[in-house]
Each structure stands twice: as C-alpha cells, then as structure tokens.
Amino acid sequence: MKCIIIGGFLGSGKTTTIRKLVELLGKKGKKVAILLNEIGEIGIDGATVAGFGMEVRELTRGCICCTLRVSLEQTLKTLIKEYSPDTVVIEPTGIAFPRQIKNNILKMGLSSISFAPLVNLVDVGRIKPDANSLHNFIRIQIEDAELLGLNKIDQVSKSQLFEICAFLHKLNPKARIISFSAREEGAKFEQFLALLEGDKSSWEEENSDFEQKNSIELSEVAAYSTEFEINSPDISLARASSISSQILQNISEKASKLNPEFVGHIKLVFSLRGILIKGSVTSAQKAPEIEILEKPRLKHSKIKLLSAVTDVPQAELVKIVDSSVSGQLETNHIEFLQKKPHNAFLPLTLKPKNF
Ligand SMILES: Nc1nc2c(ncn2[C@@H]2O[C@H](COP(=O)(O)OP(=O)(O)OP(=O)(O)O)[C@@H](O)[C@H]2O)c(=O)[nH]1
Ligand SMILES: [Mg+2]
Questions:
Q1: pLDDT value at residue 118
Q2: Spatial CA neighbour of 118 closest among 222, 20, 3
Q3: Are residues 204 and 268 in the same domain?
Q4: Is 11 in the pocket of ligand 1 (CB under 6 A)?
Q5: Is residue 351 part of a domain?
Q6: Alpha-carbon radius of gyration of the chain
Q7: Which of 17, 20, 139, 281 to pair with 333, CA 20 to 30 A apart?
Q8: Which of 173, 201, 216 is a domain's end point?
C-alpha cells in the first residue's frame, strides 16, 4: 500500500489538492482511501472530498502526529482490513509535522507499506520570502519536507514565485520544489502526481531521529469548531452563498482587531439540498472565497465552521465565531439551532419572521 501524506500550513490547499489528486488516481483505476485529520471537534473537509467513490475517514479533536497517534493506528488498521486500499492519502491538520506521522506509521508493523515523499504545501500568495516573518513551526514544516509543493501560483507573478523558490531552497536545500495551482490543475499538477507516484529510492532515507514534538502546543493556534442546523426551508443558493461570505468576513474582521497579522484558516461548509458551499478565509488580508460543490447525497441544511488562527485568545475566538454566525442568521431571519459538543443543543432557536 502506498501512503501519501500531504502536509502544509492551515489553508495552504491540502484538501483542494487531495480532491484533485484522488480524482486523477481514481481515473487510473487506483483504489484510494482518504484519511482526514481536523484540529477541531467537527470535521469540515470530509464533506468536500466525499462522493468520488473513495473511502473517506475523518479524525477530529487533535492531531494525528502527536495527540491522536493511537486513533490513527486504529483507523488505519480498520481501513486496511475493511477496504484494502492500494493508496491511502492522508491530510494532517495544518499544524502537523508529517515526519512524525510517517514515523508513527512505520512503528505500526503494517506489511508492505511504502511512502510517497513527504509533502509540505506552501501558499505562495501568503508566504513572505523573509525568515524573520516566518512562524517557528511553519519553518520546521518547510525544513522537514521532502517535496515542497508551492500552491496557488495563480496568485503571484513569475518574479515573486522565483523569489519564494529561492527563499525556500535556502531553508531546505534537500527538498524537491514543484509549483502548481491545485485549483487550475494542468501539466504542473500532473508532474506533482508523478513525483508522488515515483520510485521511493530517489528520496531521503528515513529520519527516525526527528524529535517528537507536540504540534498543538508549538503552533500557538487557537481553534474552535461549531455546527448550526438550519431549519428554514427554501433558502436560495445565492442567499446561502452571500450569508457564508458575510459570516467569514465578519469573523475575519473581528479576529484581525485582536491580531491584525493573524494567519490560519477560517472555513465553513453550508450544505443545502445536494449542494455544498465551501467558504474560506486564510488571513486578515484576504477576502472570503466561496466554492460551490455538487454533493447529491446531502439532505439536511447545516453550517459547519472551523476557525484556526494564530495569536487570538481561544475564549475570544469562540465569542467571535458564535456571534458572527448567529448574528448573520438572525439578520437574514433564518431559524437555526446551534449544536454544541456531545450533541447537546443550546436554546438558540429563533422564530422565523419571513417564512
Ligand atoms: N487561488 C487559489 N486558491 C486555492 C488554490 N488551492 C486552494 N485554494 C483555496 O485556498 C483555500 C483553502 O484551501 P483548502 O484546500 O481548504 O486548504 P487546506 O490546506 O485543506 O486547509 P486546512 O485543512 O484548514 O488546513 C480555499 O479557498 C481554496 O479554494 C489554488 O491553487 N489557487
Ligand atoms: Mg483541509
């Protein structure tokens, strides 16, 4: 079984890359399983990659490189027993160290497993080619990669990309560097896939000396996830998209008052009768992005949201997120219930005014 681990900082494009990769692998007849890890309690990415006939498993509430090592082993072993994939693609959290995941898997005693080069995706639209502005754990992620995937090249000029390449090469001279746009795919993206499928012998030897780190502590990221059941019928796609965008804008504005330089990923999925709206904001400077995905199996309307940002106090983040979502839904006269951990419902029901 081939194991592909696609690491990369929060919002660098791991899920988008994996969505495109598994589609290409599926076309080649591969039997692929996807294992997604989310730092918050609620999985967001699973819904966006599901539906290609691939087996998807989500692990939440921690990080498979440190706090969720045992869950990773159980999930992987069950997946192999029940589904026997020939390729398993793993998306760690954006604050994970993929080397630790590989070392953990090597200790599981799984037979005939091989690894693709350890990937670290870098969002070229956000990274500054300046060592002083680089967060310590992002530097560790970059330095330990075997393959640096420079994603979102549609966002920068050729000269900016060149400067970023030179900067990253200096940080990690051993890594292969490949640049592409996961959103636009194309020949460069296929070259990336070819590198992942290539012969292992061309990659660095095992590095079992990699010092075990607690990525959650090191990252200084505050994370909060929550879910809202939407009980108003007949919300149009345009309205739901606009509400999604407003919620993200609102959270981003409030978070940037506490940390104007925050980086991270504020993301939501709004499911609506067979349609999934995926919304994302990746830094204080960026505007929310909305993607519409067709997912015919989705029946219930709900919003799931995960915010993971640097240097914003956790308690403040919870307040910001809850007030932004409920405020936006109230303004739009939408009836909702906020689902709290352990499935307890908070009494946040609003009476619909216009329905
Ligand atoms: N312009 C552009 N945007 C991209 C590209 N790839 C991904 N994105 C956008 O970047 C945002 C984050 O993408 P995701 O794939 O969710 O990132 P992620 O690394 O999985 O995020 P986390 O799981 O939260 O760490 C989304 O709005 C994507 O649409 C790209 O090649 N170009
Ligand atoms: Mg993701």
A1: 96
A2: 3
A3: no
A4: yes
A5: no
A6: 20
A7: 281
A8: 216
